[in-house]
Amino acid sequence: MISRRTVSGRSRLWLLAVLAVGCSRASVVVPTQPVEAHQFQAKSGGVSVGVDPYISTDRVTQTFRGGDNFAGSGVLPVQVAIENGSGGEVSVDSRDFRLARPNSLPGAPISANDAFSLVKVRMQYWALLPVIGGAVTAGRNEPILKDLESRELREATIAPGGTATGFVYFQIPEEQKSLAGSLMVVVARRSTGQELMFEIPIEGRRDIPGSSASVETVGSTPPPKPVPLDPKNPKGPTRIDGTGGGVIIRSPAQ
After folding, report:
1. Which of 16, 51, 83, 181 is deepest in the core (most CB within 10 A)?
2. Is 232 in the same domain as 196?
3. What is the pTM of this model?
4. Can you tell me the distance from the alpha carbon of 51 to that of 204, in angstroms, rounded to the nearest whole number?
C-alpha cells in the first residue's frame, strides 16, 4: 500500500519538474531588416550583403533560447541578409561562408544541430529524480533546438529583387571576448557559375551590450580618418579612434 506521504512526495517532484521546464525563457522574434540596417555591409555586382554578429552576452541571451550558454560554449550566431538587386538569380549556401579571425585559419560554420550540442541543457539537480529527470532535460532542450533550426540560414536561390536572411553559427574560443580584426566571408553564385565573394570586416565585444559598428566595405561609409596628435605638426604621429572603442597611434613612417 502506498502511503499518502509517498504520493504527496511524488506530486512535489512532478511539480518541480513542471516548474523546471516552465522556466525556459521564450525566444525573441528578430525582425527581418534590409541590408542597410545591418551593422556591417558590402555590395558587388548588384548583390548586397549585411552581417550582424551576436557576440554581446546580453544580446544573445535576450534573443535565443538557451542563450546564456552560448558564450561559455563558444557559439557565435551571425545574422546574414542577402539582397539580390541584379538582373538574374543568385544562390547561396551558408556552408561556403567563413569566419576569419586574427592568427587563425578561416573557420567554417557549424550546423544548428552542432550548435545545439554545445549549448544544450545538461542533466542538473532533477537528474536525481527517476524518470522525471530525463523528461525535464528533454523538455528544456527541445525548444532550444527548434529555435536554432528555425533561425538558421539555409541553402537558397534568390530571385531578382528577392532577399534571403537568417543566422549562421560559428564556434570560437570560449575565452575570445572581441571580434576586432575578424572578417566574415560570404559567397554567392550567379546562375552562370560566376562567384561573388564578400569579405566584410566585423567587430564587437562580449562585454559591451549590442556592441558593433559599421566598418567600410564596398558601398559603406568611410572609415575614421587619422587626426594629428599635434595640430601644429600635421606630418607627425596621428591618432585613429576605432569604431569599437580602440585607438591606433601611427608614426609618420607607417
Report:
1. 51
2. no
3. 0.70
4. 12
